[in-house]
């Protein structure tokens, strides 16, 4: 394998960390959704890297990656539907402007 | 009637048109567009572009008598006539100035219909584009005057009709003049 | 004949041997990649230029006029004149526009159009790179252009382009689904995604001669026409309604890039249709790459023919066709290919035609556009309500 | 393809040996250094784009940065010879999910959004925590010996093996995912639909 496993894991860790930073820092809900996509992709990269380096069943890693991708698509769909509904009622999607459970 | 049959029939109409456009003659449905500056479609006789004034022989004896009927009749009011006067102020039957603003003229041909002296007719010359609208498109008398021969070769039928009519009027006038001169000889003096 | 057929392959090998004499060997392989890339980068804009001319000539002939013939012998230099005009025109960026998006959009829209060429088999042994996920690569790359259209429409801060952008993306997404599903039967029969192997699988007989192949080809071709925003589906650039869709605010070189992307994707998509259904470069006498070009240009001719004939779809008809007609037919088509694959001999034809025919009829019946038969006219009534002037 | 001995004229051997189209594996096997540089470059660009996703002020730009990240990750999958996955990633993520996200951004973008700060006040604290986490992760990655027995010659999982695995061993999750997708589809429509006034 031309790319040593360690380098890919560091790359995935970096992506993961940036994703977490994004979710913690962003005010806009869609910004948070974008960072969550980042985290999911970082996990995917790890899955594929490990599936490739162990000689058990090469396909498992990629199968899980495919499942993660489809699930991420499903979460994005539902998340954005909620965001649109929120925007229609609250006219804002900034998280710190709607931090009250009941108003 | 299956889903696509309307579309397919339409497609074959254009296919037939596309294929036969290589063979058909221009007049029966072939390619009637011509490459304009080099080849031109011959203009029909009654094609109206912009009015012009007719003179017989030399530009001096033009037919227009500055009667101002065409100026009054012109819908967009783009004809401007000034009657000439001789040295002691009596009006003459000739225009001193006769300008048509071609940029305003809408080629309707009303002036040609109402002109009693057959002096203004519609031309076939339509390529008069110019840079400056005010100086170059306002045609003065000198630019408007064109010979009767020019009129004959662009609109032969109308020109000949007008010439015949003028000739007859000429003879009738000569006859009348001759009669007016002759009666002094053979008619008994009228009782006073 | 062999020499003529492998003309370009021998030319490339000649060049590489020349290089191999005095260059280290790995540079030779890089050179072989560069040669095929350069070949594509020359071929793509060239086809684009002469497709614009061909289109104007064909549509002109359909409308009883000659089409461009002033510049050059039969108008052959017209594309060059257009190119120069596009390059010299002033490139205006609207004041409110987002400079980054406005600049990046044309660049990103040309990229997928050119990337598709890597997978197209132009002739025997003339595929730029033989990916074993060829078709998936084509679908994935062609879906990137929706992002570019979003950037163009959002970046130019103009209501018309935003409307056009929204319509284009809605249309491209709803036509991508039946397009992908219409490719699935071909993959099932050829048991591979790579374009070269699909052509080998068609050496017995072109897929278009089988019932599912014909249905798949029609669906793929219609979706391809819609994917490039061409003729009957060109709502997004409908001059009458929204000025020029998502590229209203573009002029000069950027508009030329949009124009190029459209025509290159027209060629790429019809090349794919030829590879998948019409047997790619397979053909009896002529050299392989000539067969490929003939078939591709025939399909492009049909697209121009569409443009000369069909009026524009309304947006609801456009969406209705994709979701209520093409998608179910593509799903049925996948079922039919399964049936075709496992049933023996004559049963193949009877079964598949038996399923495809009635389903086609049913979908046309379901999609009958609602036109009330007898239109009820209510004339104006006066007080004691007998109709006025009846 | 047979082991290519490096002493003969490898360039012409590759080209004369078979039809001259260099398949992907030949190129990869032969130009490892070039590929290695390319992959590291792609990784670096992806990291920069990921930082862009998180920090860019204009939301549309951060969505485009995410598109860059996704394409970069597709490139990394190609480097890991998971080409079917790269295709799926580009198709589903860039083609569909990002279009959806950009639609949502367009629909919820208010004109006044340009000048309000996009990040809340806990930026600094979050930065410290994430850097600590990163340090922890990289520490574990470097210290653990990963490859107890590296496989001799790794056979990449082609689209065929994935298909078989999906259809045989992983049939149940495959069906479960389709149910989830249908549920998500219907749920999204119901949530996003405007309440119809009675």
Structure keywords:
heterotetramer; A: 103 residues; mainly alpha; Helix Hairpins; 3 helices; 77% helix; C: 390 residues; globular
Overview of this structure, please?
- The complex is a heterotetramer of chains A (about 100), B (about 190), C (about 400) and D (about 200).
- With about 100 residues, chain A is an all-alpha fold.
- Chain A is built from three helices and no strands.
- Chain A has one domain: Helix Hairpins (Orthogonal Bundle), CATH 1.10.287.
- Chain A is elongated.
- Chain B has a domain at about 50-175: Alpha-Beta Plaits.
- Helix content of chain B is about 35%, strand content about 15%.
- Chain B has helices spanning about 5-20, 70-75, 110-115, 140-145, 150-155, 155-180, and strands spanning about 50-55, 80-85, 90-100, 120, 140, 145.
- In chain B, the strands form two sheets. Chain B has a three-stranded mixed beta sheet with strand order 4-1-6. In chain B, strands 2-3-5 form a three-stranded antiparallel beta sheet.
- In chain B, α5 crosses α6 (about 155-180).
- Chain C has one domain (about 90-365).
- The N and C termini of chain C lie far apart (about 80 Å).
- Classes of the chains: A mainly alpha (about 100), B alpha+beta (about 190), C mainly alpha (about 400), D mainly alpha (about 200).
- Chains in contact: A-D, B-C, C-D.
- The interface between A and D is large, with 76 and 88 residues.
Number of helices of chain A: 3
User: In the CATH hierarchy, what is the class of chain A?
Assistant: Mainly Alpha
Gap from first CA to last CA of chain C: 80 Å
Percent of residues of chain C in helical segments?
A: 55-70%
Any idea what the radius of gyration of chain A is?
Answer: 17 Å
- Strands of chain C, total number: 0
Count of individual helical segments of chain C: 14
- Stretches of chain A where pLDDT is under 50 for at least 5 consecutive residues are none
Task: Furnish the topology, listing elements before pairings.
The complex is a heterotetramer of chains A (about 100), B (about 190), C (about 400) and D (about 200).
Chain A: H1 5-25, H2 29-53, H3 58-90
Helix pairs in contact in A: 1-2, 2-3
Chain C: H1 2-5, H2 7-22, H3 25-62, H4 78-88, H5 99-115, H6 134-142, H7 145-155, H8 159-190, H9 195-201, H10 211-227, H11 253-277, H12 288-309, H13 315-342, H14 345-366
Chain D: H1 10-17, H2 24-30, H3 32-55, H4 59-79, H5 83-108, H6 123-143, H7 159-167, H8 171-192
Concise summary:
Chain B has 192 residues and is an alpha+beta fold. Chain B contains six helices and six strands; from the N terminus they run αβαββαββαβαα. In chain B, β2 (79-85) and β3 form a beta hairpin.
């Amino acid at each position: 394998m031309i790319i040593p496993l360690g380098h890919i894991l560091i790359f995935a860790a970096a992506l993961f960390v940036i994703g977490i930073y994004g979710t913690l820092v962003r005010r806009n809900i869609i910004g948070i959704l974008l960072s969550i996509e980042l985290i999911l992709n970082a996990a995917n990269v790890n899955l594929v890297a490990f599936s490739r380096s162990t000689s058990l069943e090469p396909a498992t890693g990629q199968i899980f990656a495919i499942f993660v991708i489809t699930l991420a698509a499903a979460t994005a769909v539902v998340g954005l539907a909620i965001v649109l509904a929120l925007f229609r009622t609250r006219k804002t999607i900034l998280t710190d402007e709607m931090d009250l459970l009941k108003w | 009637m299956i889903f696509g049959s309307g579309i397919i029939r339409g497609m074959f109409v254009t296919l037939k048109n596309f294929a036969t456009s290589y063979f058909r003659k221009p007049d029966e449905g072939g390619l009637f567009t011509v490459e304009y500056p080099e080849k031109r479609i011959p203009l029909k006789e009654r094609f109206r572009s912009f009015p012009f004034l007719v003179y017989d022989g030399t530009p001096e004896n033009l037919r227009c008598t500055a009667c101002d009927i065409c100026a009054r009749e012109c819908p967009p009011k783009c004809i401007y006539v000034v009657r000439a006067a001789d040295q002691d102020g009596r009006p003459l039957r000739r225009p001193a100035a006769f300008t048509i603003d071609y940029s305003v003229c809408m080629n309707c041909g009303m002036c040609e219909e109402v002109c009693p002296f057959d002096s203004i007719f519609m031309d076939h010359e339509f390529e008069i584009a110019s840079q400056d609208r005010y100086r170059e498109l306002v045609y003065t008398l000198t630019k408007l005057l064109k010979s009767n021969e020019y009129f004959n070769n662009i609109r032969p039928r109308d020109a000949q009709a007008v010439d015949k009519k003028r000739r007859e009027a000429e003879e009738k006038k000569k006859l009348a003049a001759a009669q007016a001169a002759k009666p002094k000889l053979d008619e008994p003096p009228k009782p006073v | 004949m062999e020499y003529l057929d492998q003309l370009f392959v021998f030319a490339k090998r000649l060049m590489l041997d020349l290089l191999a004499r005095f260059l280290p060997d790995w540079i030779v392989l890089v050179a072989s990649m560069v040669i095929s890339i350069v070949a594509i980068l020359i071929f793509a804009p060239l086809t684009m230029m002469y497709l614009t001319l061909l289109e104007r000539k064909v549509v002109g002939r359909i409308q009883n006029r000659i089409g461009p013939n002033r510049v050059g012998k039969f108008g052959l230099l017209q594309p060059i004149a257009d190119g120069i005009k596009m390059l010299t025109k002033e490139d205006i960026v609207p004041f409110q526009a987002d400079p980054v998006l406005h600049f990046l959009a044309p660049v990103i829209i040309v990229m997928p159009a050119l990337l598709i060429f890597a997978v197209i088999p132009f002739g025997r042994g003339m595929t730029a790179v033989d990916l074993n996920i060829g078709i998936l690569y084509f679908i994935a790359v062609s879906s990137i252009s929706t992002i570019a259209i979003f950037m163009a429409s959002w970046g130019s801060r103009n209501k018309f382009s935003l409307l056009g952008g929204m319509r284009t993306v809605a249309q491209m997404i709803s036509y991508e689904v039946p397009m992908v599903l219409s490719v699935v039967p071909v993959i099932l029969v050829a048991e591979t995604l790579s374009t070269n192997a699909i052509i080998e699988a068609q050496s017995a007989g072109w897929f278009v001669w089988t019932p599912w192949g014909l249905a798949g080809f029609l669906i793929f071709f219609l979706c391809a026409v819609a994917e490039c925003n061409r003729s009957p589906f060109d709502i997004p650039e409908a001059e009458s309604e929204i000025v020029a869709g998502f590229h209203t605010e573009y002029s000069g070189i950027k508009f030329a890039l949009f124009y190029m992307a459209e025509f290159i994707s027209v060629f790429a998509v019809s090349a794919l249709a030829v590879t998948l259904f019409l047997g790619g470069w397979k053909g009896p006498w002529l050299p392989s790459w000539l067969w490929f070009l003939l078939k591709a240009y025939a399909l492009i001719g049909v697209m121009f023919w569409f443009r000369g004939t069909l009026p524009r779809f309304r947006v609801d008809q456009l969406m209705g066709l994709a979701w209520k007609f093409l998608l179910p037919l593509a799903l049925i088509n996948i079922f039919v290919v399964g049936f075709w694959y496992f049933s023996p001999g004559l049963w193949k034809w009877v079964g598949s035609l038996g399923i495809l025919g009635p389903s086609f009829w049913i979908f046309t019946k379901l999609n009958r556009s609602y036109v009330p038969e007898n239109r009820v006219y209510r004339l104006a009534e006066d007080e004691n309500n007998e109709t006025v002037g009846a | 393809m047979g082991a290519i001995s490096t002493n003969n004229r490898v360039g012409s051997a590759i080209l004369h040996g078979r039809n001259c189209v260099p398949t992907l594996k030949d190129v990869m096997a032969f130009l490892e250094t070039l590929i290695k540089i390319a992959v590291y470059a792609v990784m670096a660009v992806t990291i920069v784009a990921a930082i862009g996703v998180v920090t860019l002020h204009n939301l549309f730009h951060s969505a485009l940065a995410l598109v860059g990240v996704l394409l970069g990750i597709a490139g990394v999958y190609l480097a890991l010879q998971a080409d079917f996955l790269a295709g799926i990633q580009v198709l589903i993520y860039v083609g569909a999910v990002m279009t959806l996200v950009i639609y949502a951004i367009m629909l919820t973008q208010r004109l006044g959004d340009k000048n309000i700060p996009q990040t809340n006040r806990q930026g600094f604290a979050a930065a410290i925590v994430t850097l600590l986490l990163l340090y922890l992760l990289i520490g574990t990655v470097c210290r653990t010996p990963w490859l107890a027995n590296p496989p001799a010659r790794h056979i990449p999982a082609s689209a065929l093996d994935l298909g078989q695995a999906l259809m045989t061993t992983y049939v149940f999750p495959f069906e479960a995912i389709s149910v989830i997708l249908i549920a998500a589809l219907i749920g999204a429509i119901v949530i996003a639909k405007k309440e119809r006034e009675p």
